[in-house]
Amino acid sequence: MSATGEALTPQGYIQHHLTNLHVGEGFWSWHLDSLFFSVGLGVLFLWIFRSVGKKATTGVPGKLQCFVEMIVEFVDNSVKETFHGRNKLIAPLALTIFVWVFMMNFMDMVPVDWLPHLAGAIGVPYLKVVPSTDLNITFSLALGVFALIIFYSIKVKGVSGFVKELTLQPFNHWAMIPVNFLLESVTLLAKPISLALRLFGNLYAGELIFILIALMYGANLAVGALGIGLQLGWLIFHILVITLQAFIFMMLTIVYLSMAHEDH
Prior knowledge:
InterPro entries: ATP_syn_F0_a_bact/chloroplast (IPR045082), ATP_synth_F0_asu (IPR000568), ATP_synth_F0_asu_AS (IPR023011), F0_ATP_A_sf (IPR035908). By secondary structure, the chain is mostly helical. The chain has eight helices and two strands. α1 (10-17) packs across α7 and α3 packs across α4 (90-106).
């Protein structure tokens, strides 16, 4: 059913769930649902970790403190094993990326009709609740990482060192500067593009599968029962997918920033 109460065809049902609540058109279109959930989850992450940090004790910790400490230790070990420079920003950045991306991905665990139906009841026509299925969100995260790569490449190596890296590698000869620049530019630009598209593609595909399974509930009883089994199986498998995608995004960020700190 749409927000107006009209019955949707299977194609319309899929399209309805894949449409963002937006204002504006074209380049200046704002996806309000993606912004709301991504910012809201970011604030929730900061509030939870700050609260745990303020209440942390040296005695027997509570369950939430144990859970947060496990995440922090896991991220800290990942940074120590992968990042070869010295930078106090990397560990907090990696922690933020891992937890924030995981929380955005985890919204895919909410049944696809629950929040859109609640939104429809108050007159909101469209609602996509998984920010990482929006290419605008994944690209904005990737562009933030890309800006840090450029910043630290110039800070560590200097402008001349960064230019030399782009023009004198892999072939250290002045005649090969155009070829080197082309190859290195493609390699550099591929980093944010691969970060954004990998996260978007995996989560978008996962959401689409949940939507297709939800369509089975509108068929006969046997197909609906099969849909329940398929949804449970995909839900269990998708927990691994959303965790792995958050981990990959974090690890690639650490690796790229480690490369930016290497002064050849």
